[in-house]
Amino acid sequence: MVVDWAEKRAAYQRDGVVHIPGLLDPAQLAATLRAWEWSLANPTPRNAPALKRDGTPLFYNDSFHPDVLDGYAEMLESSPIPAACAQLWGRDSVWFIYEQVFLKEGGDTRRTPWHQDGSYIPMDGEDNAVAWITFEPLAREDSLEFIPGSHRGPMYNTSAFDPNDDTRPIDDRLSLPRLPDVEAERDRHDIVSWAVEPGDVIFFHFRTLHGGAPTRPGQRRRTLTLRFFGERTHYDPKAAKSLPNFPDMATKLKPGDPMRAPGFLRLHPKTAATA
């Protein structure tokens, strides 16, 4: 597969999101699916009760497993995704932050509300990316949606994922503005999405506004997101002052400090040290 990385880098900087078809070959896709399956077989204690297949519609997600590298390190170290991040940023260093798995099946499930990941991740900067991977082919109307250019601001007090109010803030103590009701005013926004196949990867910036389509009876949606940062990323506490793999970051860092810690696996360049 040939990728015009200069074009993709320019699009990522302009839009905060790019679609790269066929980035994962069949073996790489299979390894990524095995990592996703490891997460379902090893749910975090807080989410283990939620994974019940009892015939009712299921919308399950889990993240930040304390032993994630047991199930993910081999896949991450052989994946083309870290090198793709380096290409999109125009910088070599890429560190892994954490995983998030999603499973929607069994009937109608609500859409994922519009939100920005950057509001609850205690870091910011130009070199960050979420890699979004689907294990089912999805039509454009069933895929993840984005507002291009929204990574340039403003940063909103992101959604608390309240089923009664998609715009309810995640943390009332933050001085960030409330989310607009994008879904109620879709015609006022430039919204993009892509039909995707297994092996495709969508990369988006932490600050890019995005939301997910609902599922309908007979559909199943298995997706995985992997989050990364690079050289031009700094500590920015916002709602969460620390992360599980750097629990004392709030005492060791001050806002604006570069993000570095042994708890983040360095994946690119492959010959670099891990801290």
Layout of secondary structure:
Layout: H1 5-15, E1 17-20, H2 26-41, E2 58-63, H3 68-78, H4 81-89, E3 94-105, E4 112-115, E5 123-125, E6 128-134, E7 144-146, E8 192-193, E9 201-204, E10 210-212, E11 220-230, E12 233-235, H5 249-252, E13 265-268
Antiparallel strand pairs: 1-9, 2-3, 3-11, 3-13, 4-10, 5-12, 6-9, 6-11, 7-8, 7-10
Organism: Sphingomonas olei
Region (Disordered): 155-174
Protein name: Phytanoyl-CoA dioxygenase family protein
Gist?
Residues 155-174 are annotated as: Disordered. By secondary structure, the protein is an alpha+beta fold.
Description:
Strands 1, 2, 3, 6, 9, 11 and 13 form a 7-stranded antiparallel β-sheet that branches. Strands 4-10-7-8 form a 4-stranded antiparallel β-sheet, with no helix packed on it. A two-stranded antiparallel sheet has the order 5-12. The model has no long low-confidence stretch (mean pLDDT 91). 19% of the residues lie in helices and 24% in strands. The longest helix has 16 residues, at 26-41. Helix 1 (5-15) packs across helix 4 and helix 2 runs antiparallel to helix 3 (68-78). It is an alpha+beta fold and 275 residues long. It has one domain (5-268): Jelly Rolls. The protein contains 5 helices and 13 strands. This is Phytanoyl-CoA dioxygenase family protein.
